[in-house]
Amino acid sequence: MSQVEKKAGLLRRTSSSKKPLKEKVVLMYDEIFAKEDPAKNNPRFWDELFLMKVNLEYLESKLESVDGEDVQRIQDNINSLFHHCVQALGEEHQIKVVNALQTLCALFRGVHQKNKSASGFDIINMLMGFDKAEQRMKDLMERLDSLLCGDSSESLKSLCLKLLLCLVTVTDNISQNTILEYVMINSIFEAILQILSDASSRGQHGYDAVVLLALLVNYRKYESVNPYIVKLSIVDDEPTLDGMGMVVHQALTEYNRQYKDKEEENQGGFFSTLTSMVGSMFIADADEKLSVQTNEAILLALYEAVHLNRNFITVLAQSHPEIDIAATPTTTTPTTPTTPLGTTPPSLDMMSNPELPLDPNLQTSNLLITFLKYASIVMQDTKDEHRLNSARLCLIILTCIAEDQYADAFLHDDNMNFRVSLHRMPMRHRKKAVDKNIPSRPLVCAVLDLMVEFIVTHMMKDFPMDLYLRCVQIIHKLLCYQKKCRIRLHYTWRELWSALINLLKFLLSNETTLLAKHNIFHLALLVVNLFNMFITYGDTFLPTSNSYDELYYEIVRMHQVFDNLYCMVLRVSTNTGQWKEAASKVTHALVNVRAIINHFNPKIESYAAVNHISQLSEEQVLEVVRSNYDTLTLKLQDGLDQFERYSEQPKEAAFFKELVREREGGLF
Amino acid sequence: MMEDAELDLSPAHSDQNSPSPSISSSPSLSLPSTPSSSCGPPQATTPPLGVINEGVAELSLVIDAEVAQRACQEVLQKVKLRQVDSDSTLSQSEEGPDAPPSDPEGPAPGSVKSARRRQRHNPSKQSWLLRLFESKLFDVSMAISYLHNSKEPGVQAYIGNRLFSFPHEEVDFYLPQLLNMYIHMDEDVGDAIKPYVVHRCRQSISFSLQCAWLLGAYSSDMHISTQRHSRGTKLRKLILSDELKPAGPRVRRDPLALTPFCPAAPPTVSPGPLGGDHSLSPTKRTHQRSKSDATVSISLSSNLKRTASNPKVETSQDEDCSSSSDSLEFDSRPPVRLAPQREFIKSLMGIGKRLATLPTKEQKTQRLISELSLLNHKLPARVWLPTSAFDHHVVRVPHTQAVVLNSKDKAPYLIYVEVLECENFETSSVPIRIPENRIRSTRSVENLPDCGMTPEQRAGSFSVVPNYDNDDEAWSVDDIGELQVELPETHTNSCDNISQFSVDSITSLESKEPVFIAAGDIRRRLSEQLAQAPTTFKRDPEDPSAVALKEPWEEKVRRIREGSPYGHLPTWRLLSVIVKCGDDLRQELLAFQVLRQLQSIWEQERVPLWIKPYKILVLSADSGMIEPVVNAVSLHQVKKQSQLSLLDYFLQEHGAPTTEAFLTAQRNFVQSCAGYSLICYLLQVKDRHNGNILLDAEGHIIHIDFGFILSSSPRNLGFETSAFKLTAEFVDVMGGPDGDMFNYYKMLMLQGLIAARKHMERVLQIVEIMQQGSQLPCFHGSSTMRALKERFHMSLTEEQLQLLIDQLVDGSMRSLTTKLYDGFQYLTNGIM
C-alpha cells in the first residue's frame, strides 16, 4: 500500500499547512457525514467530489470517529458514497477513477477500523446496504475486472490491485472477511491470470497479482469451496503459469541477492563497510527491511501453485535465460574515484556488473534452483517464529515436489545438471565451502544436500521436530522414486548416512529433554527405516557395488549408536507408558541393523586377532565385509518403500490458517 | 519473372488458338533468346500432338504460363527431331536446311562455319539421341548429364520437360545440381529447368523450402551486386513470397497432360490432395481441442488469451500473431504456408547463434535446454524435420536430451525431436497439444469435467460443488497407485531375474510370514546389475555428447517415449538432428551425394562394401542440419572413455575373437573400412582424425565431416599424404596384415574400385555440375576434376589396379603422417 500511503503522506502535509481554511474536499466529506443527502442541495455533488484530490487520512479518521448511534444516521450517505465510487470507476475521466479507487480503499479501511468487533454483515450493511450489497459488489468487481483487463494506464491497474489487496487484508483473519464472499462469486481470477500471462504487465503488477491470488485462495479454504482454488488447480496455459513462476522466481532471486549482499558486507573488510555506508545512503529503507523479512506471501503463492496445480510443476524446471541478465542488482555500490586500488572485493564487482553475462560462473537458473537457494537461507536460522514458518513452508513445498512424478523425473534427469550453491551456516568446526568447487549434478543432489545440511545444523535444545520429520520424509520419498525407477544416483550417500547416525546420537543423548515435548521414537523409526531402505533395496538404486559395502562399514563403525538406541527403545517398550508402542516399532525396525552389527563385529575382531592388527584400516574392514556377506541373513520388512502422501487437510490446516493470519498482520 | 512470362505469352496464347500451319516449320522463329514467340505455331501440324494442344491451351488459360511455354517448345523440338529422324534415313544432304533451328548461334553471321560443321555432325547424333531419350535406359542421371553438357537449347528444353516424367524422389536427389545449373549456367538451361521447379514448388511446401534454401546457398558465391539480380535470387524470392501456391485442380493435371510425351515414363506421382480436405481439417481440429480442454468446463472467461494453443512458431512480434483464430486459417490460407517451418528453422538457428556466445560447454548445454523448453511451448505445429524420410508433424522437443557437440568455437548441437507420423504434413491436421506433465495423468484429464463444475452450477450457488481438496486427493491417487500398486507389475515385466525379491516383498504382505533374504544376494544382484547394464560412458561436462551418443538408440527411444506426453500415440516417432550454425554444409552435401551414388553403384554391382551416407540439409551458405548417425560414437570418445585399444574395445563390446558376435562385427568393420578407404581415396577426404570417424554398435566405421575434400586440405599443410587412414589399430581389428580378413579388405577395395570405375560418369557428373560458379575450397585450383577422374584409373588393367590397391594400402599402413596427424590433432584439439 506504499503508493497510497505516499499519496496520503503528501496530502497530509498540504492539509496540515492549510488547516485554517479547510480544503474543499474535506468540506465535502463533512457534508457526507452530515444527516442530509449531500446531493440534495448540489445535484453535481458526486461529480465534483471525484474531481477532488482524495484526503485519505481525513476520510478514514472521520469514519473511525463515527459513533455507534450516528452510524444509523449516516449509513445512507455512506452507502451512497460507495455507490457513487463504484459508478465513478466506469468514468472515462482518469482522475475520477483514481479518486474513486482511493476513496473505496479509505472506506474499506475506515469502516473496518471502526468496527473491529462487528460482524461481517454489519460492515456490509454499513458500506453498501444489505439489499443492494450484491449488486454493488458485482458492479465493483466487474469494473475492476475491466480496468485490469482493459488498456487502462499501468498506474491505474496498479491502484486496482492495491484496492483489492486492501480489501483482502483489511481483516486480521482473511476468512472472517465476509465481503470476500462477493469476490468469490464475482471472480477476478481471469484478470489476475491475464496480468501474469503478459510480460509487460507481469513486470509491473506481477508481484501484487500473485500475492492477491495466494490470499484469495486461502479464503475459507477449509470451510467452503473456494472457486479460486478450483480455478487455480486447472490452469494449463503455459505462458500464464510461466508468468506466475517468473514472478516468484524474481522475488526469491531478489531476496537471495540481498542476502548475499548483506553477507558479503558483513564479511568484507574496512572498505566494504565504508562502501555499504555510502551505499546505504542511496538505498531506500524499504529495501533494507525486505532483506530481513522472509518473503512469506510469495512462498505461500509458490506453495499453492505447486500443491494445487499439477501443470505448475513443469514451470519449476523451466529456465529463463533472459531473467539472469534482467535481474541484475539495482543497488550498485557507488565507487568513488578515491578508493584505494584493488580493495574492492572481486565478487562484489561481478555481482553488480550487468555487463558480464559471459561470466563462466553465471548459471542458467530456474525456479527450483532459486527456491533451493532461498530455502537454504531461510533454514539457517529457525529461531524466530517467522523464519520457522518459512522453513516449514519450504519443506512442505519440497514434500509436494518430491511426491510429484514429473518433478522427480527432472530432479533425477541426468542431462539436467546444475551447480547449485546452497548457503551453508557458518560453523566453527567447518570451513565455508568454496562455491566454485561444486560439481554440476542432477538437481536431486542439491535437494539431498539441503536435507543433509539441515539435519546436521539443527540439533539443538529447541528441537524443530516437525521440520526434521518433514526433512527425513522428503529423503524417503526421493529414495522411493529412485528405487521404483532404478535410478542409480551418483551421490555421496556416506554424508547422508553419517548425518542420520549423528541425528540418532543426538536423540539418544537428549532423550529426557526431548521426550518431554516430542515423540522422538517416530523420528527414530523413520531414520532407521531409511537405513532399511538402503540395506534391503540398495541393489536397486545404489550407484556402485562398493557403496553397499560402505553402507555396512558405516553401520558397523557406528555400531554403538545403534546398540544404544536398541537398549533405549527396548527399555521404553518393556515399560508401560505412552511411548511403549512407538518404541517397540523401533525395536522391530532395528532387526536388520542389529543383524549386520552382530554378524560382522565378531568377524572383524577375529580378523584383527588373526592378523595381529589393533586398528583395522577402512580397506581391511571393507574386505572383511565383502567376504562375509553370504552367511548373513536379513529379514524382509514390509512397506519400506511406501509413504503417506502429503495432504493439507486436516494435518496442516492449522498451520496455514495461522500463516495467513500472520501474513495479513505483517505484510501490508 | 512470372509477370514477364505471362506478358510474353499472351500473344503466343492467341497464336495457339488460331493454328497457322503455313509457318509451322519456319526456323527463323526459334531464336533461343525469345523462345516464347516461337512456341505457338508448329503444334497444329503434327496430328499426334492434338491431345497436347488441348492440354496446352487449357494450361495457358490457367496462370502457369511457363509450363505451357515449355510444352510448346518441346512440341517444336519434337517435330524437328522427328523430321530429322525420318529425313536422316533418306539422305543426309537434305537435312541441312532443317537443322539450323536447333542451333543456338544460328543467326550469328560470324559462326556460320562452325554452325555448318555442327549441323553436319548433329543429325546423326540427334537421331540416336532421341532414341536414347525415349529409351527405358534414360534415367535422371543421364538427363542431368545431358542438360549440363548439351549446348542445344532444344535438347535442354526437351529434358526440362522430360523431368516431369521422372519420379519425384529421383529428381530430388539431383536438386542441388539442377538448381546450381539454374543459378550459374546460361539462360537456356535456366529456362528449361524453371517450369519443373515452379511446378514442384506449387505442389509441395517442403520442396519449395528446399529450393529456397538451396538457391540461397548456391547463390552466395556470386558477387553481391550480381547476386541481387540473379535468376536464383529472383526465383528464391518468388518461392518465399509464397505466390507459388497450388492453383486449381486443372494446373495440377499438367504433369499428367505431359506424360504422353514420354512413353517410357512411369505414371507420374501427383500427390495433389483434394481441396476439400483443406477446409475440413481446421474445424475438426479446433473442435477436438475445445473438447479436450478441461478449462472449458469451468468456462474461463474469454478474455484470457490462450496463447499456448497457438500452434505457430512465431512470437507475438511477428505479423500474424497469436490468437487461435489464426490457427484456423493456418491450413486454408496459403500465405502462411511456409511461415511456420521457416520460423521453426529460424528459431533453431537463433539458438545456435546465441549458444556460440557462451564460453563453456556446461553453460551451452544449460542454455540449450532452457531455450528448447521455451521452443516447446510453440509446439506442436505444422513443422517437420526435412531430413526425415516420412511425413510428420513435430510435437515436442525433449529438451533435456539435447546435447551440445564438440566444437571449438561454434556451437553445433544435437536435438531429439518427437514427431507424429501422418499421411501428409500439409493436409493432415496438426496434433493437439498435450501439456508436458500429462504423461502419467491421462486419467485425470478425462475426469476433470466430472469433478469440476458445469457453468450452470457455477452460476448458481457454488456450494453445490464438491469440496475441492478431496477432489485433489482423488486425482492424485494415480501417483500413489504407481508407486504402490504397479510395483509387482513393472518388476515382473522388466527383468524378473533381478527382481524376484521385490515381488517377494509384495507377497509377504499377504502371507504375513517373515521372509528372509541373504545379504549376499542383495550385494550380488547389485554388482550383477551394474555389470549387466550396457557399458555406458561416464558423464563428462566437457564432452556432454559422448554419453548421449553412446546410449543405444532403441533404449533412448523407449526412454524418451516413456517420458513423453505424446508417447502413447501409435504414430509417435523419435528423430534426431544436428543443427549447425556457422558452418557451410555445401561440401557435406556434395560428399553425401557422391557417397549415395557410390553406394547405389556398389549395390547395383553387388559389391558388399558398406558406407553410410547421412542426410544433409543445406539451409544457407553457413547453416544447415545433419541427420545424425545413430548408435555411433567417435573413435576419440571410444578411446578416451574406454582407455582400451580398438581391438580390446571390440572384444569388450562384442565378445571373444571366435564368437559369432565378434566375427560379425569384424566383418562389418572390414566392409566399412574398405568402403570408406575407397571414398577417402577418391574424394581425397582429409582431416581424418579420430574425432571424425565413428564406430557404430555393429562394428562399422563411419566417416563424418567432409569439410576437407578434393582440392582442399586443412591449413594446406599437405600433412596427410596417405591415401586414406589405415592405422595399425584398424589392421589389428581386421586380424593383422597377414590375416584373411585383411585380404578380404583389399579384395573388397579392388572390387569396389572396379565397380566405381564402371560408372565413373555418374560420380563425376555430380561433382562437375557443382563446381559451376562455386567458390568452395574443395574446387580450389583448376585440376580438381581432372585429378578426380585420374583417381578412377580408367587406363589400368584389373591386375594393375590390384597392384595400385596394394600400394595404397601399404602406403597408408606405413604412413607416418597419419600418426603424425593424430598427434597433431591431440596437441591442438585434444582429440585422441
From TrEMBL, chain A:
<dbReference type="InterPro" id="IPR013636">
    <property type="entry name" value="ARMH3_C"/>
</dbReference>
<dbReference type="Pfam" id="PF08427">
    <property type="entry name" value="ARMH3_C"/>
</dbReference>
<feature type="domain" description="Armadillo-like helical">
    <location>
        <begin position="435"/>
        <end position="666"/>
    </location>
</feature>
<dbReference type="InterPro" id="IPR016024">
    <property type="entry name" value="ARM-type_fold"/>
</dbReference>
<keyword id="KW-0472">Membrane</keyword>
<keyword id="KW-1133">Transmembrane helix</keyword>
<dbReference type="GO" id="GO:0016020">
    <property type="term" value="C:membrane"/>
</dbReference>
<dbReference type="GO" id="GO:0005829">
    <property type="term" value="C:cytosol"/>
</dbReference>
<keyword id="KW-0812">Transmembrane</keyword>
<dbReference type="InterPro" id="IPR039868">
    <property type="entry name" value="ARMD3-like"/>
</dbReference>
<protein>
    <recommendedName>
        <fullName>Armadillo-like helical domain-containing protein</fullName>
    </recommendedName>
</protein>
UniProtKB/TrEMBL annotation, chain B:
<dbReference type="InterPro" id="IPR057754">
    <property type="entry name" value="PI4-kinase_beta/PIK1_cat"/>
</dbReference>
<keyword id="KW-0808">Transferase</keyword>
<keyword id="KW-0496">Mitochondrion</keyword>
<dbReference type="Pfam" id="PF00454">
    <property type="entry name" value="PI3_PI4_kinase"/>
</dbReference>
<dbReference type="InterPro" id="IPR015433">
    <property type="entry name" value="PI3/4_kinase"/>
</dbReference>
<keyword id="KW-1000">Mitochondrion outer membrane</keyword>
<dbReference type="GO" id="GO:0030867">
    <property type="term" value="C:rough endoplasmic reticulum membrane"/>
</dbReference>
<feature type="compositionally biased region" description="Polar residues">
    <location>
        <begin position="293"/>
        <end position="313"/>
    </location>
</feature>
<feature type="region of interest" description="Disordered">
    <location>
        <begin position="262"/>
        <end position="333"/>
    </location>
</feature>
<feature type="compositionally biased region" description="Pro residues">
    <location>
        <begin position="98"/>
        <end position="107"/>
    </location>
</feature>
<dbReference type="InterPro" id="IPR000403">
    <property type="entry name" value="PI3/4_kinase_cat_dom"/>
</dbReference>
<feature type="region of interest" description="Disordered">
    <location>
        <begin position="1"/>
        <end position="50"/>
    </location>
</feature>
<keyword id="KW-0472">Membrane</keyword>
<dbReference type="GO" id="GO:0004430">
    <property type="term" value="F:1-phosphatidylinositol 4-kinase activity"/>
</dbReference>
<keyword id="KW-0256">Endoplasmic reticulum</keyword>
<keyword id="KW-0067">ATP-binding</keyword>
<keyword id="KW-0443">Lipid metabolism</keyword>
<dbReference type="InterPro" id="IPR011009">
    <property type="entry name" value="Kinase-like_dom_sf"/>
</dbReference>
<comment type="similarity">
    <text>Belongs to the PI3/PI4-kinase family. Type III PI4K subfamily.</text>
</comment>
<dbReference type="InterPro" id="IPR001263">
    <property type="entry name" value="PI3K_accessory_dom"/>
</dbReference>
<dbReference type="GO" id="GO:0046854">
    <property type="term" value="P:phosphatidylinositol phosphate biosynthetic process"/>
</dbReference>
<feature type="compositionally biased region" description="Low complexity">
    <location>
        <begin position="18"/>
        <end position="42"/>
    </location>
</feature>
